[in-house]
Amino acid sequence: MAKPKNSDRIVVDNSNLSELKSTCDEAVERILSRQVDDNSQAKQLGYAPFRASHRHADLRLALGFTASAVMIGTSIWSYFVEKEWSRNKYACGVAVVVYAVLSALQMLDSYMQGNTIFTGTRKMLSNRIETERIVLESPPLPKATKKAAPTSPDAKPLLTPPAYTLHLHYTRKSNKGKSLLGSKNSSLPLGHLGEWFTQEGEFVEAIFEHRLLSALLKAIGQ
């Protein structure tokens, strides 16, 4: 897990690819949804933020809270109110079934979300009000590549960190979403992880932000 040493630095374990990928995935939403400052890279690139959607996360939280409330409430009732097993076993059985169903729905929603790490919308005003929507997916990282050292065949091979690539689904609509003005599906290759993680494992967000915003704006034609 990423550990901020102070309010500005994020340091991770360079040997843990899952940790490296999670840090990048979390940064995507943070960068794309935060407000643009006058002196920021986003302002210089002409980027307008998207409003992030947390529908899947909110749904799973609601399902988990409901399932826990049902089990805890039933347990308290059976312990303090109706202690006889012959009388409370049916209610306890129903609670177990409800808990299992809600937990299954949580797993189903997580499966449906798949590799999606960001869903966002924004309204743009040109000659009319247009709504843009993007969905970004972060597939599993490929393996690191090895290249022979150029100086000597006996030297240790050079290891290039895995490349980080996002998949973009973009739509632009008007007339309250009734008219489709454009859509795109493309890949956003941002580079390999070693380009924004230092040897000490520090995440250089400024480099990652520039790569992400530049690739996104180019892909959607802005």
Describe the protein's architecture and organization:
The protein is extended, with a radius of gyration of 24 Å. It is built from five helices and seven strands. It has two domains: 17-53 and 115-145 and 160-220; 58-110. The protein is α+β, with helices and mostly antiparallel strands. Helices cover 42% and strands 24% of the residues. The strands form two sheets. It has a five-stranded antiparallel β-sheet. The chain has a two-stranded antiparallel ribbon with strand order 4-5. The chain has helices spanning 17-33, 41-45, 55-81, 85-113, 205-219; strands at residues 51-52, 116-125, 129-137, 145-147, 158-160, 163-174, 179-192. β2 and β3 (129-137) form a beta hairpin. It is a multi-pass membrane protein. The chain crosses the membrane at residues 61-81. Belongs to the SPCS2 family. This is Signal peptidase complex subunit 2. InterPro entries: Spc2/SPCS2.
